[in-house]
Amino acid sequence: MKPKKNGTFNAQAFLESAGIAKKIVDYRRGEVIFTQGDPCEHVLYIQKGNVKLSVLSKSGREAVVAMLGTGEFFGEGCLAGQPVRMGSATATADSTILLVDKNQMVRLLHKQHALSDRFIAHMLARNIRIEEDLIDQLFNSSEKRLARTLLLLARYGKHDKPVRAVPPISQETLAEMVGTTRSRVNFFMKKFQRLGFIDYTNGLKVNNSLLTVVLHD
Fold first, then answer.
1. Rg (the chain; Cα; Å)
2. Confidence bin at 78 (pLDDT 50/70/90)
3. What phi and psi, each to the nearest 5 degrees, are found at residue 196?
4. Are residues 20 and 124 in the same domain?
5. Cβ neighbours of 43 (radius 10 Å)
6. Residue 114: which domain range?
7. What integer is the mean pLDDT of 43-49?
8. Residue 1, CB half-sphere, CA atoms under 13 Å: how many?
9. Digit-coded pLDDT (tens) for 113-147
10. What pTM was estimated for this model as a whole?
11. Is residue 20, in this structure, part of any structural domain at all?
12. Any idea what the CATH number is for the domain that residue 79 is in?
């Protein structure tokens, strides 16, 4: 696999190429991709769609730890020796997922430097996001956490657009991600809408001005 002319590596094209042992599976919205406690046997790559990663406590409480989109890896814990899945993955939209056997992935990362660089960049970005989420939970109000979550879901900073659409998501899921109640999420969403930070016309859209909530002390 050669880099594109602009110098970026096309991970999807490489993973789809001949000679790589993989499986491609289509999931409908709401369908479970893997469940907490399942054997860790594959690294997964989102060709199309959106995926929710969540963890279930012993008391039965669910916490959403990430919302992923096209072009992102997940399930990489198997490469670090995790025998079973530490959480669950669910398609939040009709999705196409590419599964690569963990042993095959290890060999690819050793042999293909471009893929290895892309994967390391993904892991570093994920670790930074986890650290930011922890700081967010420790020091910020639920209103700020919700605003930051909406901006992240809208991929703030990745496209030069003042308003961005958010993939379909329920207020229950937002509450699980933020660590608050659905009623509080509903209260803040109405406030954001009243202030013009979000818009519900033809789906949920987020205005960059919502960033003022995150930055306000």
1. 18
2. very high
3. 85, 15
4. yes
5. 25
6. 11-136
7. 93
8. 23
9. 888 888 888 888 888 887 887 787 777 789 999 99
10. 0.71
11. yes
12. 2.60.120.10
d(CA 46, CA 39): 19
What pLDDT shows up at residue 18? 53
Inter-residue contact 176 to 54 (CB < 8 Å): yes
Tokens coding 111: 């042999």
Q: Which two tokens stand for residue 114?
A: 């471009």
What phi, psi does 54 have (nearest 5°)?
-140, 160
Tokens of 17: 């190429």
pLDDT at 96 > cutoff 50: yes
Amino acid, single-letter form, for residue 19:
G
Closest CA to 174 of 27, 90, 52: 52
> How many Å apart are CA 108 and CA 118, to the nearest integer?
12
Whole-Å CA distances, 140 to 53, 77, 112, 135, 158: 22, 29, 41, 8, 24
Structure tokens at 121: 């960049």
